[in-house]
């Protein structure tokens, strides 16, 4: 299929899904977001859909799939959005820093209230204003510090694998800050590896990109995919399914469970960041550093890039992340 053909097919599918969703009971507004709406789609883009949620209504499952593609359904609570719009109209744009960036440059498809049209206009106008970019950086560093505190706690408790799991979340925070610092919209997590490599080449961030690859142990990705993934695929997807409704099928279909899209580094990075922390201490985090468990679950530990997470290895990574955070204005992990 040629590029114009798959783009047309993808656009038709996304529009059709949004139209069907808009026809559901109580729908007060629907918009298309993400790379498809922005015209930056790739062959495996999922659909990011925003919808107005009336007061008292229950949101639908965030994750969904449709004909083999992923859908993220992002609720915008009507009462909160009305307050935000009034605040922005009054001259204070700070609520925009909390709006979901997946809906930036979105396309409104169903808007009987007119609220989504106002939302899109203000979002597009202000997201990259100096004030909002500064807030995005500040909040990204705040999230980094929260994850860094978990790294410190796990390390102090003698749990290096759990510490590395949280260090990956902290590293992800710094990646987002790198994008905002350069006035660029963070891109798909499925393609973090290739997109960050591109950012690094354009801005001279080779050391940062190398750090990212080391924190996520991406040099082991090929072997883990070939040798360990066939053994642990079902278990990993079952863990994903416990996250929230629809997440299991979403990971299977929209996070390349076949590793055939040519984005293996980004894809395995998604698994390595989220699967260990789903359920927090009631999930894998509670057993990762049990050596008996780890020995019995070698393929899973290797696939998640945690087999070599000895204290000296993790400590060395923490020091490098400290330095990267300091350059971006963050605080050291320890």
Which helices and strands, and how do they pair?
Blueprint: H1 3-22, E1 30-33, H2 34-38, E2 47-53, E3 63-66, E4 69-77, H3 78-89, E5 107-110, H4 115-126, H5 130-156, H6 160-181, H7 192-203, H8 206-215, H9 221-241, H10 247-254, H11 264-274, H12 291-296, H13 298-303, H14 311-328
Parallel strand pairs: 2-4
Antiparallel strand pairs: 1-2, 1-5, 3-4
Short description:
This protein has helices at about 5-20, 35-40, 80-90, 115-125, 130-155, 160-180, 190-205, 205-215, 220-240, 245-255, 265-275, 290-295, 300-305, 310-330, and strands spanning about 30-35, 45-55, 65, 70-75, 105-110. With about 325 residues, the chain is α+β, with helices and mostly antiparallel strands.
Protein architecture, described:
With 334 residues, the protein is α+β, with helices and mostly antiparallel strands. It has two domains: 3-127, Beta Polymerase, domain 2 (2-Layer Sandwich); 132-328, no CATH class. It is 57% helix and 8% strand. It contains 14 helices and five strands. The chain has helices at 3-22, 34-38, 78-89, 115-126, 130-156, 160-181, 192-203, 206-215, 221-241, 247-254, 264-274, 291-296, 298-303, 311-328, and strands spanning 30-33, 47-53, 63-66, 69-77, 107-110. The protein has a five-stranded mixed beta sheet, sandwiched between helices. Helix 8 (206-215) packs antiparallel against helix 14. The longest helix has 27 residues, at 130-156. The protein is globular and about 60 Å long. It starts with a helix and ends in a 6-residue tail after the last helix. The mean pLDDT is 94.
């Amino acid at each position: 299929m040629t590029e114009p053909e798959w783009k047309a097919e993808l656009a038709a599918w996304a529009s059709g899904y949004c139209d069907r969703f808009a026809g559901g009971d109580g729908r007060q507004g629907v918009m298309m977001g993400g790379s498809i709406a922005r015209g930056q789609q790739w062959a495996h883009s999922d659909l990011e859909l925003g919808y107005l949620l009336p007061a008292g209504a229950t949101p639908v499952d965030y994750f969904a799939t449709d004909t083999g593609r992923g859908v993220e359904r992002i609720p915008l609570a009507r009462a909160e959005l009305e307050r935000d719009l009034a605040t922005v109209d009054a001259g204070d744009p700070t609520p925009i820093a909390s709006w979901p960036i997946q809906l930036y440059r979105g396309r409104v498809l169903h808007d009987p209230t007119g609220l989504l049209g106002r939302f899109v206009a203000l979002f597009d106008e202000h997201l990259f204003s100096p004030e909002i970019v500064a807030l995005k950086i500040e909040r990204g560093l705040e999230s980094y510090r929260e994850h860094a505190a978990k790294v410190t706690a796990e390390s102090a408790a003698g749990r290096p694998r759990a510490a590395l799991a949280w260090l990956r979340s902290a590293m992800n925070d710094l990646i987002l800050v790198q994008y905002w610092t350069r006035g660029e919209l963070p891109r798909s997590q499925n393609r973090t590896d290739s997109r960050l490599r591109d950012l690094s080449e354009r801005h001279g961030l080779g050391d940062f990109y190398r750090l990212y690859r080391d924190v996520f142990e991406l040099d082991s990705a090929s072997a883990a995919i070939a040798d360990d993934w066939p053994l642990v695929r079902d278990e990993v997807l079952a863990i994903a399914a416990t996250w929230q409704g629809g997440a299991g099928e979403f990971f299977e279909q929209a996070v390349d469970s076949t590793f055939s899209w040519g984005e293996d580094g980004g894809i395995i990075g998604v698994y390595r960041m989220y699967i260990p922390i789903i359920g927090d201490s009631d999930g894998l985090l509670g057993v990762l550093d049990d050596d008996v468990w780890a020995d019995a679950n070698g393929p899973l530990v290797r696939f998640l890039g945690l087999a070599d997470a000895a204290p000296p290895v993790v400590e060395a990574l923490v020091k490098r992340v400290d330095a990267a955070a300091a350059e971006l204005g963050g605080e050291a992990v320890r």
